[in-house]
Structures are given as C-alpha cells and as structure tokens.
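Case study.
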Amino acid sequence: MSNGKNESLQAIKERRDTALKALIGRVPYLDFMGISFDRRGDELTAVMRFDDKLIGNPTLPALHGGATASFLETAALIELAWARAWEAMEQGVQDPEEMAIRLPKTIDITVDYLRSGLPRDCYARARVNRSGRRYASVHVEAWQDNRSRLFAQATGHFLMPSKDG
Amino acid sequence: MTTTKEKIARQFTAALPFCSALGMRIDETGPGMAALSMPYDAKLVGNPDTGVVHGGAVSALLDSCAGTAVFLHPDGVMPTATIDLRVDYMRAAKPGERIHARAAVYHTTRTVAFVRASAWDDDADHPVATATGTFTFAQAQNEEVKP
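After joint prediction, the assembly is written out as follows.
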C-alpha cells in the first residue's frame, strides 16, 4: 500500500470515509439522535435529522435544549477526533485502529441558545481553536435554514485521549 | 403539599417528547426546585468501549431539571427557555446506574432566572456533572398562575 501519488482518487476517498465511519459508526447515542456527518475533504458538517422525539416544547414547537446541547457536543467531539485521524492519515497511517479512534473526553461545554430550534434538520460545524497534547478548546456553530442565522453555538474544553490509555 | 404548578410540571415534563424518549421522570418538586432522574439505557451510550452514557444525555437531563425548577419558581409564569447552560463533567457515569439530577433557582430578576444543578449516579457525594444556567423568566404580576 502506498500513500503516494499513485493512489487512485477512489482509494483515497474510500480510505477517508472508512476512517470517518470507524469514528462515528460505533457510538449508539449518535444513532439514537439521528446524527450523521457530511465530509468534503477534511471539512465535516454534522447533521441532525429532525425527529418528533427531539421536541422539548410541543406548543411552539421547538427542539429540546438538551437535544441541541447533545448535537453541539457531538459535533465538537467528532471534529476533534477527526482532525487527529486526518493528520495521522496524511502522515501515512493506514490502519484505522492505529489512528487511535478513541474519543476525547468533555471537560466542560457552554451552550448559547440564540433562537429556538425549529422542527427541521440541524447543521453544525466545529472549529478547533487550540489542540494541545492534553487539552483542546473547540467552538461550534449550529444553524437550520440559514447559515448566517445561528440558532445555537457552544464552546467546550476537552481532554485528549493519551496514547497509552 | 403539592401545588397546582407542581401538578402541571409533573404532567408537562412527562409529556415532552425528548424527556420521554430519554425515559426521564420527576422525583421531587418544590418552589424553585426540581429533582429528575433517567434510567441507564444502551442507546444513550457515547463510548462503546466503556458503556458510559454520552455527555449530551446528561446535559439533557440537567437542562430539563433546571428548566423545571425555573417553571416551579413561585414568582414566575409559564414557559421558560434556556439562554445558556454550562455543564462541567466531573467523572464518567457508572454504566448500568440510574442518573439523578437536582436543580434550584438561586436568583431571579424580572427577566432572568439563575439556576444551579448537579447530576450523580449511585454516589450522591461525588457528582457526575454540575451545571449553571440562565433561563428566560417572566415575573408574575401578583396573580394566580393560570395554566
């Protein structure tokens, strides 16, 4: 196997998609919440499909704050782990196991609720502002119909998994 | 004695789709306070290697608990929305254990309620997570709360 110029576009895509799947495919809570990830190169967009069970206020109706918080925290965690995995892949690591698919741990997260979440799909992108050996700081923005009208944002701090457990 | 508001809160919270999807139940209510809990469930697992519940599910419990406490504040009128919620995760919740949360409103203005909450599993002395939040608040004009 080579990671050089001879690798076909298809093979590169497959390798990256497999790595992403290895990261998110095993987390039961993502399934339960209907959260998936779109990938364009190294950029991830988290998607939470609308479902009636995500409603917190049936009279409005609006998404439950806890559903929104779960979505933002997930987007931050996966982005952080993905950034690591991407770096490893670029350095030629092929084995998903070796890319350390262990997720970071949340230390704290602060969610700002900017407007009520409407009963429709949600999107989020996370930006790693600082990723050290042990600690990382990540900002997340979430929107629904309009990218410029955020309905929630969050900043969280995370503990990176250590290599030896 | 259970007030009208407490009765409403018990029915209302149970009727919220996301709360019932997570199996939440109200254990205790009082003026400006609430205790909720949620059973362990395999579908809430965030770390498949350890079986630990996802932090987002704990956040959801804390948010619901804090929101219910705001609703139960004697000076407030109907529904509230979270303005911001900060959750600190102290340790992983033990797999298989029910998660409990308790929240209390510690200050209100005419427009904002300030709340503290914490969550624990079988060891109430060592919280799994604590939270502080601000919620929208509409002060009642000295009249009975009409649901």
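Observations recorded in class. Chain A touches chain B at residues 26-29, 31-33, 52-59, 62-67, 69-71, 73-74, 102-103, 105-113, 116 (CB under 8 Å). Helices of chain A lie at 9-24, 28-33, 65-90. We will return to this complex in the next lecture.
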